[in-house]
From TrEMBL:
Its main location: nucleus. GO terms for cellular component: nucleus. This is DDE Tnp4 domain-containing protein. Residues 175-340 form the DDE Tnp4 domain. Pfam families: DDE_Tnp_4 (PF13359). Belongs to the HARBI1 family. It comes from Macrosiphum euphorbiae. One of its GO terms (molecular function) is nuclease activity.
Length: 405
């Protein structure tokens, strides 16, 4: 070193300083927990900047979260203990209110997890974990409250609602399946590939006269038919073995004839004594059958209306869900639970009555029932014919039914 000139010593000192500075930068980078942009979450994140403004405006709050502030706070109080996390020495946890806001915004808008990540200043994986954990908590804490197995008296109440609002007696629900589009699961082959040429899981739902979900089954392969899904579902097995507390039968209004309580489905479902489907064929030569099909389809459409309401409220159903099938099941199930929860606590139930007051319900002699062959049981044909004759009798007719056949 003694033989080096002053210029050479200065150059060595500069190089050593630069090397030390590079080491400091690398060391500092390794110690960063999150991206610098996410570190601004506490003063630039959407929850901090926007939520406090929404709280002062009920209408904007409802548009943003698809529920009222009362329902939001009620929901938060119910699941808070399930989504609460502990602070650590290195960082503060995300609050339950923040987590619920992220989840509801994801369900309400259908935005991608990446979009939510940037707007809330949270990591992509953090948002995904928050959504799944919160959905799981919603199902755990609310499922038994908003979607319990109906009692015998509740089934009778549901049947009375269908008769009062949709003019179909002894009906305890409308049944249908909805394909929920998901990203193609790895190594799944054609299991989830449906007739619409998309990958999906199926939401099978039983709905009451006010568009509430009575029972649902989520997660069946998209390639399966609605009828096959019902047979293999827990709901279908409980109905088949009569383990759903459904009353055996009841007298048809205005008559002395008894009929079983039934569920209404479309052509995809089999004809059962407890599950009715329309008469097959688009051009029926029998007016009585056409009238039955009209009355059947008019009532059954409540389940399609319920799916429409669910999709309109939670726009996540308008896009492909980017999650594995197990987590997609949780997202769909939690959305259905929230659908019922919001209808209960926001009191926004609405339905079309379309009933002519004063329809006569006099005693009548129903026509002789003719049995038919086929794969369905004779009892199932008997039940459908019984309702067909009722809708063509003075006790069961409505003034407008001939206009739609």
């Amino acid at each position: 070193m003694a033989n080096l000139s002053n210029e050479e010593l200065l150059m060595i000192a500069v190089l050593l300083d630069e090397e030390e500075e590079e080491l400091k930068i690398k060391r500092r980078t390794r110690n960063v927990w999150v991206h610098p942009a996410w570190q601004k979450r506490t003063f630039e994140g959407e929850f901090v900047t926007l939520y406090k403004e929404l709280v002062d405006d009920e209408s904007k709050f409802y548009q943003y979260f698809r529920m009222t502030m009362y329902s939001f706070n009620k929901l938060l109080n119910t699941i808070e203990s399930e989504i609460q996390r502990q602070d650590t020495r290195f960082r503060k946890c995300i609050s339950p209110r923040h987590r619920l806001a992220v989840t509801l915004r994801y369900l309400a808008t259908g935005d991608s997890l990446k979009t939510i990540s940037f707007s809330y200043r949270l990591g992509h994986s953090t948002v995904y974990t928050i959504v799944i954990d919160t959905c799981r908590a919603i199902i755990k804490k609310l499922m038994s409250e908003v979607m319990p197995v109906p009692t015998e008296n509740k089934w009778r109440e549901i049947a009375e609602d269908f008769w009062a609002h949709w003019n179909f007696p002894n009906c305890i629900g409308a049944l249908d399946g909805k394909h929920i589009v998901i990203q193609a699961p790895p190594n799944s082959g054609s299991l989830y590939f449906n007739y619409k040429k998309t990958f999906s899981i199926v939401l099978l739902a039983l709905v009451d006269a006010h568009y509430n979900f009575i029972a649902i089954d989520v997660g069946a392969y998209g390639k399966n038919s609605d009828g096959g899904i019902l047979i293999n579902s827990k709901l279908g097995k409980m109905l088949e073995t009569n383990n759903m507390n459904v009353p055996s039968s009841s007298t048809l209004p205005g008559t002395s004839y008894t009929a079983p309580f039934v569920i209404l489905g479309d052509e995809a479902f089999p004809l059962k004594s407890y599950l009715l489907r329309p008469y097959p064929g688009k051009q029926l030569d029998c007016e009585k059958k056409r009238i039955y099909n009209y009355r059947h389809c008019r009532t059954r459409r409540v389940v399609e209306n319920a799916f429409g309401i669910l999709t309109q409220k939670f726009r996540i159903f308008n896009r492909r869900i980017q999650a594995n099938p197990e987590n997609a099941d949780l997202i769909v199930l939690a959305s259905c639970v929230l659908h019922n929860f919001i209808k209960i606590y926001d009191c926004k139930s609405s339905y079309s009555r379309n009933v002519t007051e004063g329809t006569p319900l006099n005693e009548t002699t129903l026509n002789t029932i003719q049995f038919q062959g086929g794969n369905a049981s004779q009892e199932a044909f008997h039940v459908r014919e019984l309702f067909t004759d009722f809708f063509n009798s003075p006790s069961g007719t409505v003034s407008w039914q001939n206009e739609y056949i």
